[in-house]
Design a protein that fits this description.
The complex is a heterodimer of chains A (about 575) and B (about 200).
Chain A (H helix, E strand, L loop, with lengths): L1 H13 L21 E7 L2 E6 L20 E3 L2 E3 L10 E9 L20 E8 L6 E10 L7 H5 L16 E11 L3 E15 L5 E16 L2 E14 L4 E14 L3 H5 L2 E16 L3 E2 L4 E14 L2 E9 L4 E11 L5 E12 L9 E4 L2 E4 L6 E14 L3 E26 L4 E28 L3 E13 L7 E2 L3 E11 L3 E10 L2 E3 L7 E3 L2 E12 L4 E10 L4 E2 L6 E2 L2 E9 L1
Antiparallel strand pairs in A: 1-2, 3-4, 5-6, 5-34, 6-7, 7-8, 8-9, 9-10, 10-11, 11-12, 12-13, 13-15, 14-19, 15-16, 16-17, 17-18, 18-21, 19-20, 21-22, 22-23, 23-24, 24-26, 25-28, 26-27, 27-30, 28-29, 30-31, 31-34, 32-33
Chain B lengths: L2 H22 L2 H4 L4 E12 L10 E13 L2 E12 L11 E13 L6 E14 L7 H4 L11 E17 L2 E12 L6 E13 L2
Chain lengths: ~575, ~200
Amino acid sequence: MKYRSLTLPFLLASGIAVAQVPAEMEGMEYETRADGTFLIGGPTFVFDRVMGAGGVHSESELWTPAKLRDRLLFNRWSGTPSWTPLEPGVWLKTGNELGDLIYQDFITEENRPENRTPILEGGFRSPTYKGLWATARLFQDDHFCSGAYAYRRDMVNGNYTHLGANWAMFSSAYGGLGYTNSLVNASVLAGEEYLWTYTATSRWIPSHYKPRVEARADIKDLSMTVAYEDIEFENLHEKEEGSRKEVNGSVYYKCGKACEKGVFKVAAGLAFRAVDDEGTVYTELEEDRVAWPFMELRVQPVGRLTADVTFGVNERDWLVQDSIQFVAPAPENMGVVVGVKNISGSRLNPLADTKEFYDGREIDLTADGQMNLIQAYASYVDTLGGFVSIGGRGSLWAEHGAETFDVEEIRYREKYDLTTRYGDVDRIEDWIKGVTAELWLNTWYRDMFKFTAMAGFEHIEGPVDNAEVTPAEFYTGFMGDWLLNKTFKISHSIRYRSDAKWNLRSKNPMVVKGDWTWDASFSQMFPKYGISLTGTLMHVLADEVMETVNGGYDRIRFICQAKKTF
Amino acid sequence: MGKLKKLLLLVASLALAALAQEDSTKVEDIAFSKVYLGIEGGEVYPFGDLIDATYNTMYGGLNFRYSYWKNVDGVVMFHYAYFKPRPDVVPYDGVHQASGKLGLDWRFPAIHPIVLGGGFACNWTRADLDDDIVKDEIYDEPGGTLGDNETEFGWFARLNVVLWNFEKFRMGFNFMWEEIWTLPKRSDMLYAGIYVERKLW
């Protein structure tokens, strides 16, 4: 029974493996995933939808308590740029989109390729001294900076980055102190940041955080976060300037050890934002503040049955996410889970701004009414001979009132090759239904070899072309990891996604063609010295395309990292 | 206990000890157990299209070699070179290049003086601009992109021929083929150099 209740759900959950190829920045793990539709506009914007999740929204649009320490970039929760202090050590990272000219530049007169851009990072976190530690980090991602490049360059003064002249999508630097013991984990960081956020009108808005200060404290089961942001906006196209002073954060009580033992598990918290805008700003938060109290409940009347509810409500919005899951009786070495999941609410992200302003026009980012997503699913896993497991997951889902955008006008600026839109956030007042089927196979040999093959298919009925993105119908992926001599690690991920389509951000829908992609990572480790050297090739084989309107090109890139842990 | 049994037990325990030793002399013990520091200098020859782009040039730098596995060494190299462009239209005298290489060397047990290796290369370049040249103004001219720092990655393969070993010192030739992942074509160069290295521990 213990085996079934602990191991199998884990196997079921981990059945769809995420590649071990490291992402270029933490928070960008979507770039190596196979199991869905992941369209990257840049390090600060992605359409990320796991096929098995159902519905037509992107995961990063949906608020959940797990994202309390993510960054809110316009209406999305982003793991990048992450201000979560890294583990004690010292590290350096650099990389580049392959294809600079270097000496070819002397002999290439026609059709010079566009400049390729790097990734840069350096940082440290000291070992603790009587619980105290210090950290500092500079990190920026210049990949994908071709997105609306000329328009962005002419929009701001100077290089708008800490290093280089590529108008990187983000460039962050912070330093700070922390304190860690068995009960407390606390830190205060302060820094300066340049950031471009992608908005409902498909523009990129520059934000200069000067400074950004974030304090975190985890005391037993209580987590607190508060950030102060002094953000400057500028737009040289219109000779505009503005600023926003913002305080945001959360208090969160998690279910502790004593609570975990009970039949009822309760967690609760409050997330909040307050802003003070001056001059010309490009978004508005209604009443300049939002408070979002929420609660999580888990009821486990018997070992096999679990019911989860997360709900939040305030004077403007409400959001409920719940699920009931049953681990069905099955032969040994096999696991079967059936469940029902539901998301209902007036807004996917109740903490986001409520209006955007563009060219003197107002874009309403909230919609009347509510959305309802219901999904029924069944998954199974079967382990054969201790070295092979096969699994599958099928689901049926239906969504009514999905959030979308009601386009009034699309504007194209030839000078900058920039397509933007006007309108308001709206709902699809109709049912969209889908059926998904996914299969995977895992095989492994001790800790030396691991291989996963997987494939998924989804059929969607209904007016899905009214949604922002029509997701891919089909994916397949093959991941292999080798660990040689316990010190040399090779990870591969090769995968295919079928066509996906942006429906509402350009005059004609923008089709992101289906393609194969290969990522490979080589890591040499010296465990005795805590040193690791990693080289990663990303997006090999694939065509170098734009995956989002006004987004950057997804190019072949190489990233290397040297790290010494303390 | 009979003698035979004792003997068998001794043999068995020795075998076990040997096996245990085999286990314990794994990577942890070999890695970094020997470390060498060397200096290297030589000439770089552009290949393919690059013959029309730059002249041959001299290079020099430091090498760092360490034991990693049995018969496999890790190598880290830092080399500097100054490349002069061939076309007269390039608006500067030359380009500074710093090259970092990280790879593995495989010592052939059979043909001892020959070592084969390969790995990743990362080259940083920047044009040697006169003070009166503004980099943005030359950007569209040939070589203009190097007015700012440019970095590009690639791979290398090398043949290392040991000529002379004396106590802690070693001397030899290093021939390296380097391909950098540039556009519109890849950039190939051959390095031929001589090195002297000293065992640190």
